[in-house]
Design a protein that fits this description.
The complex is a heterodimer. Chain A is mainly beta. Chain A has 4 helices and 51 strands. Chain A has 2 domains: 106 residues, Immunoglobulin-like, CATH 2.60.40; 654 residues, Beta Barrel (Maltoporin, Chain A), CATH 2.40.170. In chain A, a hairpin with a 2-residue loop joins strand 26 and strand 27. Chain B folds into 2 domains: 117 residues, Immunoglobulin-like; 115 residues, Immunoglobulin-like, CATH 2.60.40. The chains are: A mainly beta, B mainly beta.
Chain lengths: 791, 289
């Protein structure tokens, strides 16, 4: 590994830090913002300073947002200022500051009693689409997520973001999601900065994020700043709560699928806190007494455990450690399990009141395991995993009121175990493992957020990323690609430890521009180039727990995408309504595709069966959101296209991706009725996904084999999908400490059998008859009730 | 890997059982193809090559026979030609003679079809097959995936050395068990390379028909046929086609063919498969112990 980028950054940061100290004639107002009740830090708080020059001719204004760790910094000329702090769900606060020296000002904000409390409209509210520089970004607080009706009453992060514009899925119960026409592996999913390689519980019906431990979810579909890298489509940033710094709290719930319990509290008041949240499915426990004796040993459960501890060492240093363990277990005569493990350690350090550093160390591990048979007789054991360790220093330098500079680096070491297998045969056994793969990914970036006058704001940055596929490992050299046939192996050989096998690097420019036409209208433009060096090997419609990740190798080129986006943002009716329309166009290179009938599991020569695909996607997204008042919700509509072209598939012509949906409409509505009832509903409409249908049947050995003589891929569309969900929440009578609620939910209210896919088969009763069969994953209304409590 | 596919299908089946509806769709019609169905072996019984035309997918009824073709199989080494006679429309058969040397292990054979002006060719090599040592059966109680009844297993060892491919089919009272696509293929004694020379692992060795086990008095028999790598590919893809539905379906793909037209642009483009196998067979009658 080359250490120079890191050294360079460190020295740059020291220099910048020194420079920052010397900023002449200006002083810095900085500090941490926290929740008044729990003491947890608040991110995304709008900090607005206005000079109060006595009889001043010109007023000076400056604004910033608190970062993920609640820190803000504003450097201003000396003088008297009125500072306002505002954030969604919190009462705005105003105070006066006389800035004559650097001023540290930590502040606590009080939450509004409920979401429906009308904020005084003359106040500048929290960040909104017009004021905020970022585009193609949606933030969902856990409060919003909890108000969405959920399948089987289980609040779910991944299902919630599927209601946002620009996001689609291949269908119900599928684990992955698709952002702006990208594949499922093109989303970087971070849980407290640790990458999550598979978010699924129960094959994708639920995700592994425990809502009791989550604070906020950010989805970036475009305009992604240079500080993020690694995937070519989107970023889903899931942030965990810190845990209450003031008092011990217990939260829990009993639903149809999970039982949940979360405990949080201070380890030392206002200094250290912890959070511990656990969920377990208990269908198996409930069912046990009713099962036949032969099913008693059947395994059927999934659980997750999330923990976090925080320590405020002093005014300049904070330390956080968080981790997740999620696991699914299935089996009877076989064992099938999979799980994620992540561990994140972070250190926040203030070099000065203008230079903030976050140093993150990450461990992430995803694995699955399959076992058949008996140890002492015949057996088959198979497991696979991906492990990574990362180190990531990130710096923010609040240079002056017009410039916020960010720079940093990251280095990730990967170990891929595509499959370790053992076939046991009484006293004999054979190892059928596939060779391990190693890689190192690193990146450095520099970005600046710059304000040019009152109206114009820019964020521009450059990321340099670099990837090395490393030994020890086995290298395969193949002959040229023959369309849609396995490439012939030319040679294979072993390489030693740390020996580089293939090396790639890319420059990734990013730029976002915002022009505020007035306080209610803004136009934004962005361009992004993103590189992706690791790929998910999956040729199924929905991602499966068995999908393995592979590095870029001498045979697999890194993916790259270019995205152009333009948007118009408008605030309506005292900013209670926010509207936006965005257009995007995306080019994608080197997506993975597969030759027909490729065998992706247990195949040592898989690299010879991969095909590089060109992709393009474009669309329009309309979004209208109402965040305040007794009625809240949003309406989103997406019109889009997502296509790819692969030599040898569909006769080499462009074809629609399996997840392409022309129209996607999502409506989310939440109504508060009195003090105790809350009603919510969602209605979704998706155009049908493309599918490949046969033209002919061939009779071979008595089987009727479907065949398409035209070679077309995705030449049909299955019917549209639409669904209404409703839920009602009844809050318990307010009591001293104990609070509770009942949630009644109905999924698929009008009982529609939505198509997931259409497949073709021989009639089981008459082999000479063939038929088309529509498969629905959930074909009826699903009612559920959940009881939640906290004290 | 089939077992994994099976586990997935099973689990998703549990999750969303009963959500299948037969629907009517309108499909494009493709051009008709010549479908060659020629799975031959060294068993001393009538060997059949069937020639049919493909049909639009959703039509009912048997495929139209292709008649009047000249069909033969040639021993590539000696040039000896074995003729197949059309005994009924589209069915070309040959009754093996004692010591006629057809389907000898190690030899390569070429299928030759002459149809009007068009000529088609395909080749297949006969690989060795191990003998089946013995058959065993056990009475097993009902499980969620299986009715109560007798499960039958064969004991055999993969041939050591090269990578071998096998095609396993079973019979109940002399009738092939498969109405739908229901058979197994293996690489050596397991599902992937690496199980060379081992005893066939249990999921493969269990040749009990589908979800309907043998009953007392049934005759249970199994056929282990050697195939080459390409035939293995063809059959495993055929198997995938029959289970390729649901959440984790892969993009449907056409089955490959090893039938080639000697001339470009034949009247009927070829599809289907030609394979010659060596077969080990064994049978047993299920009796109360």
């Amino acid at each position: 590994m080359k250490r120079w980028p890191l050294l360079l950054l460190l020295s740059a940061s020291t220099l910048a830090g020194a420079r920052a100290q010397q900023a002449e004639g200006k002083f810095t107002l900085s500090g941490y913002l926290r929740d008044g009740a729990s003491g947890e830090v608040l991110s995304g708080v709008y900090v607005w300073a206005e000079s109060r020059a006595a009889g001043g001719d010109s007023t000076r204004r400056a604004a910033t947002l608190s970062n993920h760790y609640g820190f803000y910094s504003l450097t201003l000329p000396p003088g008297a200022y009125r500072v306002r702090l505002s954030s969604m769900g919190y009462l705005s606060t105003t105070f006066d500051v006389k800035l004559e020296e650097n001023h540290r000002m930590d502040h606590e904000l009080q939450a509004t009693a409920t979401m429906l409390e009308e904020v005084t409209v003359s106040d500048p509210a929290g960040p909104d689409g017009v004021r905020d520089l970022s585009m193609s970004t949606n933030i969902l607080s856990i409060r919003e997520i909890k108000s969405i009706p959920a399948l089987l009453g289980e609040i779910d992060i991944v299902r919630s973001i599927q209601l946002l514009p620009g996001v689609s899925t291949v269908g119900e119960g599928s684990g992955g999601f698709h952002v702006r026409g990208g594949a499922a592996d093109q989303n970087l999913v971070l849980l407290d900065e640790a990458p999550v390689y598979n978010t699924s519980h129960l094959f994708g019906f639920f995700s592994i994020f425990n809502p009791d431990a989550v604070k906020e979810v950010t989805l970036m579909k475009g305009g992604i700043p240079a500080r993020y890298g690694g995937r070519s489509a989107s970023l889903l940033d899931v942030r965990m709560s810190e845990g209450n710094y003031r008092k011990l709290r217990v939260e829990g719930g009993v639903g149809l699928v999970f039982s949940r319990l979360a405990v949080e509290g201070p380890l030392k008041r206002d200094t250290a806190s912890f959070l511990l949240a656990a969920r377990r499915s208990y269908v198996d426990l409930l069912a046990r007494p009713f099962l036949d004796s032969d099913l008693e040993d059947a395994l059927f459960n999934f659980y997750d455990l999330t923990a976090k501890a925080n320590y405020r060492v002093n005014k300049r240093n904070n330390v956080f450690v968080s981790g997740t363990l999620a696991k699914d277990n299935f089996g009877q005569n076989f064992t099938f399990n999979w799980g994620n493990r992540t561990l994140t350690a972070r250190w926040n350090h203030l070099f000065s009141d203008r230079l903030f550093m976050n140093l993150t160390g990450i461990y992430s591990n995803y694995n699955y395991e399959l076992r058949f048979g008996n140890e002492n007789a015949q057996s088959f054991n198979w497991d696979s995993r991906i492990v990574n360790f990362s180190l990531k220093p990130d710096f923010t330098l609040y240079l002056n009121t017009s410039n916020t500079l960010r720079f940093g680096a990251s280095a990730t070491w990967y170990k891929f175990e595509p499959g370790n297998g053992l076939v046991g045969n009484w006293d004999d056994s054979k190892n059928i493992s596939l060779p391990l793969k190693y890689a190192l990914e690193s990146g450095i970036y520099l970005e600046n957020e710059q304000r040019l006058g009152d109206a114009l704001e820019l964020q521009y940055g450059l990321r340099y990323s670099c990837f090395t596929y490393l030994g020890p490992g086995k290298v395969y050299l193949y002959h040229d690609t023959i369309p849609n046939a396995p490439r012939r192996l030319m040679r294979e050989y072993e390489v030693g430890r740390r020996e580089p096998i293939a090396r790639y690097d890319q420059l990734e420019p990013r730029i976002t521009l915002k022009m505020e036409l007035d306080s209610r209208n803004a136009i934004k433009l962005s361009y992004n180039r993103q590189a992706q060096y690791i790929h998910l090997v999956s040729n199924t419609a929905a991602t499966t727990p068995l999908d393995v990740w592979t590095p870029s190798t001498n045979n697999i080129q890194p993916q790259q995408s270019d995205q152009y986006a333009a948007g118009y943002f408008r605030n309506l009716g005292n900013s209670a309504l926010q509207a936006s329309v965005e257009f995007y166009y995306k080019d994608i290179r080197n997506q993975l595709d597969y030759i027909d009938n490729s065998e992706i599991i247990l195949n040592e020569y898989l690299e010879g069966e991969l095909l590089p695909a060109l992709g393009k996607a474009y669309g329009t997204e309309l979004f209208l959101a109402k965040n305040r008042g007794p009625v809240t919700g949003w309406l989103s509509y997406t019109l889009s296209r997502s296509m790819r072209r692969v030599e040898g598939i569909n006769n080499g012509a462009w074809f629609y991706n399996r997840y392409d949906r022309t129209h996607v409409l999502n409506a989310v509505l939440n109504v508060a009725l009195g003090k105790r009832w809350e009603l919510s509903g969602t209605w979704v409409y998706y155009s049908g996904t493309p599918a490949t249908f046969p033209t002919s049947r061939l009779e071979i050995q008595g089987w009727q084999v479907p065949h398409n003589t035209t070679g077309a891929r995705n030449n049909y569309r299955i019917g549209p999908y639409h669904r209404l969900d409703l839920s009602a929440t009844l809050k318990g009578r307010p009591r001293e400490k104990w609070s509770s609620s009942w949630v009644f939910s109905f999924y698929n209210v009008y009982h529609r059998r939505n198509p997931y896919s259409i497949f073709f088969r021989q009639n089981p009763d008459n082999p000479l008859q063939t038929q088309a069969v529509r498969l629905s994953v959930i074909g009826s209304i699903v009612p559920a009730v959940t009881y939640n409590f906290s004290f | 890997m089939r077992a994994v596919g099976f586990a997935l299908t099973l689990l998703t089946g549990l999750l969303c059982g009963g959500c299948e509806d037969v629907i009517s769709v309108k499909l494009d019609e493709g051009e008709p193809l010549l479908v060659v169905d020629a799975f031959l072996n060294n068993v001393r019984r009538v060997q059949t090559v069937r020639l049919t035309q493909s049909l639009p997918y959703l039509t009912t009824g048997e495929a139209p026979a292709v008649t009047g073709a000249r069909v033969s199989v040639v021993d590539v080494q000696t040039g000896w030609e074995y003729f197949f006679r059309e005994v009924e429309a589209g069915t070309y058969q040959r009754r093996p003679q004692r010591n006629d040397g057809f389907a000898e292990v190690g030899k390569e054979y070429e299928l030759r079809i002459q149809l009007g002006q068009d000529q088609y060719r395909a080749r297949s090599r006969v690989n060795p097959v191990p003998r089946i040592d013995t058959l065993v059966y056990d009475y097993e109680e009902k499980t969620p995936f299986q009715k109560a009844g007798y499960q039958a297993y064969f004991i055999a060892f993969d041939l050591e050395g090269q990578t071998d491919y096998y095609f396993i089919r079973s019979y109940r009272n002399g009738i092939l068990r498969s109405r739908n696509i229901d058979f197994q293929v293996s690489v050596d004694a397991a599902y992937g390379e690496g199980a060379d020379g081992l005893q066939f692992i249990e999921p493969l060795a269990d040749f009990t028909p589908g979800d309907d086990p043998y009953r007392l008095g049934d005759s249970a028999s199994v056929e282990l046929a050697s195939i080459d790598k390409h035939t293995y590919g063809f059959l495993s893809q055929l198997m995938d086609l029959s289970t390729n539905a649901g959440l984790f379906a892969t993009p449907p793909a056409n089955l490959p063919t090893n039938i080639e037209s000697l001339f470009p642009d034949p009247q009927l483009k070829p599809a289907g498969w030609f394979a010659v196998s060596a077969v080990s067979a064994a049978g047993i009658r299920i009796e109360a112990k």
